[in-house]
Amino acid sequence: MPDVLAESLSEKAVMGTDGAEIGSLYNITVDLESGQLRNLVVVPLEEGPDFEFSFDEDGHYLVPVSRVQSVRDYIVVER
After folding, report:
1. Residue 50: CB partners within 8 Å, gap ≥ 6?
2. Considering the domain boundaries, does residue 1 fall inside one?
3. What was the pLDDT predicted at 11?
4. What is the predicted pLDDT for the residue at 60?
């Protein structure tokens, strides 16, 4: 995957590979020891379907970075 500037990802829509809109990017977590990206923190749609991702204490989805398929107009993640 090509390099993408973090500032261009702010509030970008997150969509599943099946075309279902999941929500919008809120933040990205990082492993402080290794510097590797861990999870996309996604604000879920208010009236969207329930997805199998885990949640943080604020009710945001935690989507493992390993599930990111592409970053263009949307961030597309494997469901």
Report:
1. none
2. no
3. 82
4. 95
